[in-house]
Write a structure and sequence with these properties.
434 Repressor (Amino-terminal Domain); alpha+beta; disordered N terminus; three-stranded mixed sheet
């Protein structure tokens, strides 16, 4: 059996990471010089005398810390009985040299520096087996770092699995409905919009005070101090605003639903869905919400805007809440979309057979919806103050949709609630004469250019794509992804007077 087949297998790259950088090239040169020197049994002092240099200078060269002059390189090649071409070869001269280079490179990374550990010098008395083990450990650390960076795909799969799980349940979580209904009733809620004072009472019943501060850590929406019973929120700059009530309720939800530190990104996503659901179930309590919707259905006047105004929430919150209640309590199947003004699908839910665009994993987020859908055609009208109604013929059937557009600092968006043709009779806006046809995913529907224009411009167009920064960003990591924990702890200590309970 050969030595190569017996040694442990470490997947050393044929072209190591960063090998094209000057530092990597110098390190490779230094290792080739060291290999040639030890092969000939020369010490640094002996080689220095032969090449007209000093041992200290050669040590720097061999460790990749100094670039030798051409004259010195030629003298070294002559002294070592080789050529400058051989010394400048980009391939490691031996397995051990490759391991030493990999170890040096790994210990020079930011990731290793962040560990605060000392560097191991690959001296001659360090066995090859020890080098194998160290390099193997570094490769595993790099693999885990790479896995963390690659987790947007993992997150998309987790998001898709969670969306399908919720679809199987008609987006309805009865256990959370019960908890929310009980808490708002105990806080004195009867009908209409849930007041700030009622939310504060719910928090007090759980042993928490709501405090508005202007120095929340930038990576957080709220911070809960479990030791001192405080929930820190942004400043109350918009009296009666839905946002602050929702944020407070989501913070409360973690305690009410018994959440622990997320074990995985999938666990983190599940908790986010649950706290959002809880907040919506409190702001639009089931009993009052179903009573409102049932009355509207009897009048054939179901409308997102009426539901929104009855409970003092945003259009998006009202639309999403309909997905929780319409199927379960009114036997109406539906779909919901939030779409950017460029056609990008940010959120989507469907249990009525409408087919969203999806990638190979089944994920719909980030896909572009058909130009003929109401979610996009609503942007083409001048008057956007009211809801836009449209029938759309699709390969899956005809759907009626109600769309409301809005804008943020990040751009425009639309919120759509739609139902199959047969259920449109229950909704205001069913008498619209606007009707479009969507053949997507057939590319001839809206993705392929006009044949005449393609013939004219295909060989003359060279557009420069606008790359969105979030596409290139790694997924936030940590127990609470995206949260800078050091900042949070400093914030809590500051507001606890530096002597909060532990």
């Amino acid at each position: 059996m050969s030595t190569d087949s017996a040694r442990p297998v470490i997947d050393l790259p044929t072209e190591p990471r960063g090998s094209t950088t000057p530092g990597s090239q110098l390190l490779m040169l230094g290792r080739r010089i060291r290999h040639a020197r030890t092969e000939r049994g020369l010490t640094l002092d002996e080689l220095g005398r032969l090449a007209g240099s000093t041992a200290s200078q050669l040590s720097l060269v061999e460790n990749g810390r100094r670039e030798p002059r051409l004259s010195l390189l030629q003298a070294l090649a002559t002294a070592l009985g080789t050529t400058t071409t051989d010394l400048l070869d980009a391939a490691p001269p031996s397995r051990r040299a490759a391991l030493e280079i990999e170890l040096d490179r790994a210990q020079g990374t930011v990731a290793y520096a962040a560990l605060g550990l000392p560097s191991v010098r690959p001296a001659r008395n360090l066995s090859t087996e020890a080098l194998e083990a160290l390099v193997g450990l570094h490769h595993e650390l790099a693999r885990r770092d790479d896995a963390a960076i690659a987790t947007p795909e993992e997150a998309r799969r987790a998001t898709t699995a969670l969306r399908l799980w919720m679809t199987e349940r008609n987006n309805h979580l009865p256990e959370i409905e019960e908890v929310a209904e009980d808490l708002v009733r105990r806080a004195g809620y009867t009908t209409g919009a849930l007041t700030h004072s009622a939310v504060a009472q719910m928090a007090a019943d759980l042993g928490f005070a709501l405090l508005h501060v202007d120095d929340l850590p930038h990576s957080t929406r709220t911070v809960t101090d479990l030791a001192n019973g405080r929930i820190y929120l942004p400043p109350a700059s918009i009296p009666g605003g839905h946002g602050l009530r929702s944020l407070a309720l989501q913070a409360i939800a973690h305690r009410v639903l018994g959440h622990s530190t997320p074990r995985s990104y999938a666990d983190f996503l599940r908790q986010r869905v649950e706290i959002t659901y809880f907040a919506a179930a409190c702001l639009m309590p089931r009993t009052a919400a179903v009573a409102h919707l049932s009355a509207a259905k009897r009048r054939k006047e179901l409308a997102v805007e009426d539901f929104r105004d009855a409970f003092g929430v945003t259009h998006e919150a009202a639309a999403q809440r309909l997905t929780n209640l319409l199927t379960e309590h009114l036997d109406i199947r539906l779909h919901f979309l939030r779409v950017g003004d460029d056609g990008t699908l940010f959120k989507g839910y469907s249990n009525d057979a409408v087919r969203f665009p999806a990638d190979g994993t089944g994920a719909i987020e980030g896909q572009v919806v058909c130009r003929q859908w109401a979610a996009r055609s609503a942007f083409t009208r001048r008057n956007r103050a009211t809801e836009y109604f449209q029938y759309t013929d699709t390969p899956e059937g005809t759907f009626w949709c109600s769309t409301q557009t809005g804008s943020t600092s990040a751009g425009g968006f639309s919120i759509t609630v739609g139902v199959p043709f047969g259920a449109a009779k229950w909704f205001r806006g069913r008498d619209t004469s606007t009707r479009r046809e969507s053949r997507c995913p057939d590319p001839s529907c809206c993705r392929q250019p006009d044949p005449g224009l393609a013939t004219r411009w295909a060989r003359h167009a060279w557009p420069s794509a606008a790359v969105h920064a979030h596409v290139l960003s790694p997924l936030p990591t940590g127990s609470f992804p995206g949260v800078e924990v050091a900042e949070v702890y400093a914030f809590l200590d500051r507001h606890a007077g530096g002597h909060g309970e532990a």
